[in-house]
Amino acid sequence: MRTHYCSEIVPALAGKRVKLAGWVHEIRDFGAVKFVLLRDRTGITQLTIKKEGADAALIEAAESLVKETAICAEGVVEAKPVAKVGRELLASKIEVVGRVLKQVPFEVTGKVPAEIDVRLDHRSIDLRRLETRAVFKIRAEAAKAFRQAMMDLGCEEITPPCIVAESTEGGTNLFELKYFDRKAFLAQSPQLYKQLAVLGGFDQVFMTTPVFRAEKHNTTVHLNESTQMDCELGFAGEEDALSFLEKTIIAVLAAVKKNCAAELALLKSDFAVPKSVPRFTYDEVLAALKKKKIAMEWGEDFSKEIEQKLGDVLGSELFFITRWPTKTRAFYSMPLPEKPEICKAYDLVFKGLEIASGAQRIHDPELLVKQLRFHDLAPEDFEPYVDAFRYGAVPHAGWSIGLERLAMRLANRDNIRECALFPRDRQRLTP
Hints:
Blueprint: E1 17-29, E2 33-40, E3 43-50, H1 56-63, E4 70-77, E5 88-98, H2 116-121, H3 123-126, H4 130-152, E6 156-157, E7 163-164, E8 176-179, E9 182-186, H5 191-202, E10 204-212, E11 225-234, H6 238-259, H7 261-266, E12 279-281, H8 282-291, H9 304-314, E13 318-325, E14 335-336, E15 339-350, E16 353-360, H10 365-374, H11 383-387, E17 396-402, H12 403-410
Parallel strand pairs: 3-5, 6-10, 12-13
Antiparallel strand pairs: 1-2, 1-4, 2-3, 4-5, 7-9, 8-9, 10-11, 11-17, 13-15, 14-15, 15-16, 16-17
Helix pairs in contact: 4-6, 4-12
């Protein structure tokens, strides 16, 4: 139904006849001339309708238009567009393909702000907003760059299951479901399955997968269904995984910066693409906080308020925190042999928000059982998992990036729900 998208209307097409398809964004009527802004997923083009001498069908169609009407338009590309959008078509035909039959629930142009819950209640309309489209263009570019970086580093893509028989990380915050005549759960994480793939000889794997957590939180940085971008490396340790994560996040930032310049400008987002990512141990971070008179007990996780201050305290908007207290991390995190109260775990923080975490994993089944008990988990509940490490398990390490959190910071958004297509939180199950 189109020959071009709006972004393809360039000076080289001047004088050429083209066909566009999209929605009516704005209408301006000056009597003899009517301007209709047509919006598609790539941008906006101004349709100019000169009424004098125009075809009667064109005038009739133009007069029937209201905002958000879906249309196809044909015309000649103007050589010197007068439109502020920089693209102009002298329209010769307009076809209405989707009429507006109810009042649009909020102003798509953004001239009248709408509450986020109103927008999410009518998400298909919200997705037409230029700002919302920019968020998802950035998110898609980040996901694409992650996948490309993983393949460039020699990783193989896998797809873990989302329906599991037991907890994949411990704890009770699981969504239970009926699986034929058995009880099952939605997976909290692909963690155990990516480890099993590495133990099975895949060696280096990556995946992009949904995860489900039943925590009853009400924050701007948590979802009950989110998307993880994971990596797991066999015959590898903490440093190998950190190196892969560093190369991957730099590649993602560079790709978004290069390919989403217009979207970043629209959302007033800016960030640096570093050549390397600085590392700070947990103890070094606590010492830096103490110098700033910010109190925090050893062994605690960073609160949201403290996490937001870390960039200023450490002098970097992107950094690793390594060597965490063992008791604060997942049971499979490898403790230091010489100091078991500290483990080989790490987080990646970007603009005041943890966007990735990982660790070198325990591959010794005896130590794994010991750490399950240390974390108040019953080893018998994890017997099939532990048993997999009794057949020549290898050292391995990995990490996970939260795609919605990463998109939040790349797109300069304050609420993670803006970065999920149809978000699921404690209250929202529709649309």
